[in-house]
Predict the structure.
Amino acid sequence: MFRFPKFRLAAGSTLLLAAVGALIAVSSSSCDKDELIDLLVEVRMAPGGMDYSPSSTYTINGTAVSFSTLRFYMHDPGVSDGTTTMSTDAYVLAAPSSAPVMVGQVFNDDYDYFTFNLGIDSVTNHADPSTYVSSSVLAPQTPNMHWSWSSGYIFLRIDGMFDADGDGTPESPFETHLGTDNFYTPIMVSGNVEDDGDHLHVELVFDPIKLFDGFAFASDPSDPMTVTTHTMDNMPLAMTMRGNLSSAFSLE
Amino acid sequence: MRHPAFFLGLCLMVLTACESPEPPYSAVPPGFPQVLHPQDNAPTPERVALGERLFFDPILSFDSTLSCGSCHKPEFAFADTARISPGIHGRLGFRNSPSLINTAYQPDFMLDGGVPTLEMQVLAPIDADFEFDFNTAELVERLQAHPEYPALMQEAYGRDDAFALTRALAAFQRTLIEGGNRHETGQLTPAEQRGEALFEAHCGSCHSGFNYTNYQFLSVGLYTVYAPDSGRAGITGKPGDSGKFRVPSLRNVALTPPYMHDGSLRTLEEVVAFFNSGGVGHRNQDERVKPLGLSAEDEADLVAFLKAL
């Protein structure tokens, strides 16, 4: 989905309005910086900094794991200079091997941050996914990114296997699905975002292993609550992952 | 075979439709409010017929063995007599199948109220691994490859995707309107009349209105601990909602054993005895659920009345 860009103020004060005005004034003095340019977002899944493959084995806190599903929703991707954020109101479903997505247009400038909200805003979160055309990222997906029993999107989905018997091979399933309105989380990733000539190209790197910092996989896979969360049924694990969200993202 | 009263309701609707210029599917039994249809899903014969066909078609389940009608059987007021209706591969969930009669009037859906519209409720059994264990996007692809459904969906909705699927099933379910039981037509026996008085005194504040429910979420104190199904709390996350489930309609209640959210009480006699006992004292138990002091004759009269609904 794409809508025209909008300015979002970091704080709603007249001082900031003045700052925005000044920023625009400065920008307009440049030949390029008052022009709009496409913002292109590309997401790379990189468990432990390595390339992702569903058949590869990675290590989380000493436990061998594999990932079968790595997906998350981004809303409102944008860029920021630290004071003013220019966002696009787009929705992006990040998945392995996704093509770069043109999420909207921003002023042609250099920025210090890529910003987005992980998840879906509360109004859209509880809307009917079947109203969207099949090509929309908000339409029903495979694998499923919607909780039909509670009418809300799965904001982040990580499924896979972990090694419960200590033989080094993942054999026990785990599921971590984050969602519900309280988990709609603003993310600000620092890094230089520059015009490459035709567009601003953001290469966002997601390391799912960092989400599990401070969490130990259980040695008893028969207790699924120790390795699985659908948010409401295992809030402690969900909160741990949410607390680690910011550290899981970086810019290429 | 469908419940006779369901056919009576449909016949009343058809007759009324023939006698007046009202839009189709607008007739309701005496004393019932009008059904409010969503703007994007006004009922038409094509939409309702498509929804009815889909409702009884096992194409909706992953292994094509189960349809909506497998667990919502017309002869049981679109409920089931199994404690827990098995999903594909015999998998069991944790709730008893509710009746779909008059579901058009529900303010929200599922026994915990987690789904806001009937159209969205359609997605729940498709996704649940203990029901159809399918995926809506993949189901749509299956329907689009069917020799007849794409044309039927296009004719009904101008598209053949998840929108048409959810709308058609909801449109059909909104036609399952029924009224005119012996309570409403004043044909109660003396025992049923005594039961009616007891009902009004002890049950009527929750099982109120034309559909015998106030649609609230209450704990009746069936258990001291509700796990793994905490009811409304599973949606809101609030401990104060643990053990709360929607007050069910009692229309056709004689046709829909077993009872309670998990089908744990087999007969109406067991249900009445439970409420006469006053519940187990769950921390969120509604204060109206308390020992009633009913005699055996009272209980029998109350059961007789319930069977007239």
